[in-house]
Amino acid sequence: MSEKLRAMIKELEDLRGEMQALVVEQADLLAAVCEENRVSARNLLHYLAMRRREMRGLQERLADLGLSSLGRTETHVLQGLEAVLAVLLRLDGREAMVPAGECDRMVGGGLLKRNTGELLGMTPEGRRVRIMVTMPTEAATDYALVHDFLQHGMDCMRINCAHDEDVVWLGMIQNLRMAERETGRSCKVLMDLAGPKLRTGPVELGPGVVKMQPKRDEMGVVMKAARVWLTPVGKPELPKGIADACLPVPLRWLKSLGVGDKVKFVDARGARRTIRVSEVVGRSRWADSFETAYVTAGMELTAVYRDGLKEELVGKVGPIDGEARALVLRVGEELVLTRGLEPGREGRIGVTLPELFDCVEEGQPIWFDDGKIGGLIRTVGVDEVIVEIMQAKPEGSKLAAEKGINLPETQLKTAALSEDDLSALEFVKQHADLVGYSFLRDVEDVRLMELKLGDSKLGVVLKIETREGFENLPVLILEAMRRRNVGVMIARGDLAIECGFERMAEVQEQILWIAEAAHVPVIWATQVLETLAKTGRPSRAEITDAAMGERAECVMLNKGPHVLEAVRTLDDILRRMGAHNAKKMPIMRRLGVAADFGAVKDIEE
């Protein structure tokens, strides 16, 4: 037993020496870290030194003695080791005390809590983990929506700068500030820069057709007419309500129509159709269609008046935008990627970042649309890249415009901040609390952001969504810690494609461990309760996934028609799970299922 104890003591003493040596080795890097973050930076280096070793054998031997196996010491690595070492020395008959250190369990946990509060706001009552909600466009004009988000648990508003514009963003923030005053709750604002996202270019438009289709029962009987919005060409008015179809028509012709008048026409299939005007709203009209019809631009509409006294007036349907078609790709087929952004058609499509053509190599994998379509690069030319499709649905998969492209084995040489990002950043510095930094890959990307922010107190969230970003995570965090407020977002969508879906569980765990060792808060993001937000009904798997978000400091929800219900559900899940776990430490609260076991119960005759 004594030999085993001394072997463990020697192993821990060697590990302690390696921790201390790494801190000395990285003295210049530590000196550049913000003074308030240096204790955390040293703790991260201690953790990295420990994780360079194979620890599993030592952990088993420590557990056999009923001691800490060092598996939950992320926030206080050196002090955790010193505590175990002191016990081993006493078991070996030697005098030992745990030396005073700068970061014990209470200090480390306190630093993480402090950093989380400064970056993401106060701890919400009843739960530890914050909830971040991505704003839909209507949040700029729908105050009640923002108020409800805040009232039901939102702690941080996320604005995606890849969508909308500054006028819309400002409307969202103004609604939030008003809701804060009314509810007495506070909420941080994260503005997420789009970054150099590689996407597919435009796709050729199909013919412009408007379909009117009433709702029918199982027997084909019309239960509800299709509501048709007739509005002036060139100066359209938005309908107040849901329109099943919208038609641009000449204003003079439209003004002649009153309630009860009819509009007759021959549709695109040669079918004679009639719709009836049901309401006058400003210069526009509502009409009802009890038959299915297909309307195209230039089609003649004849106004038939209810009193029969006026001469029938003919108008023509104005321009109707066509819908973007999608390319259908099948396994074994070729897809040509082009440098130009002319509309894609018949196996050809452009890409938004021309740097792709200078960086890709033959044989490298490529993925489209969040991994739905996969291929291998077969030929690389100056202006064209030929891809062989290797993964798609048996019947073929559709590839539309503006879909993401991932190149997990390619090092894209792109600017970390686009011109659009730099323009948005000026607004962000004035109105937001923290900025999301997308697709960063190396330390130079972090330095660029630091340069652009200058003396701004804006918090920075490092979005880890590329393989390079994950592999460089420790140095990215240490470089970012030159600023006071730093966070990490696990952007699991792109990251899963970049690192491989089978590795995603392992990768997100590693990000959580490293960030906790740096006392840096983590945002758990991408597809959390997505089915619930989009359809109103969650899947069993995503409820479990949401519960895993309790390991982070914040969980992000994306947009969807039922996102308010997702906020309520997530709030409930996090409150329940917070009573059972704190990060990865189980909390042994009283369990009802255990208390009821074997209990004597009165049985009434």
Architecture overview:
It is a single chain. This protein folds into 4 domains: 102 residues, no CATH class; 253 residues, TIM Barrel (Alpha-Beta Barrel); 108 residues, M1 Pyruvate Kinase, Domain 3; 80 residues, M1 Pyruvate Kinase, Domain 3 (Beta Barrel), CATH 2.40.33. Helices cover 35% and strands 22% of the residues. It contains 20 helices and 29 strands. The strands form 7 sheets. It has an 8-stranded parallel barrel, surrounded by 7 helices. It has a 7-stranded mixed sheet with strand order 8-7-11-10-9-13-14. Helix 1 packs antiparallel against helix 5 and helix 7 packs across helix 8. The radius of gyration is 30 Å and the shape is elongated.
Give the structure's gist in a few sentences:
The protein has 605 residues and is an alpha/beta fold.
Gross morphology is elongated
**Helicity range:** 25-40%
> Structural class of the helices, strands and pairings?
alpha/beta
How big is the Rg?
Answer: 30 Å
Number of helices: 20
Oligomer: single chain
Per CATH, which architecture of the largest domain? Alpha-Beta Barrel
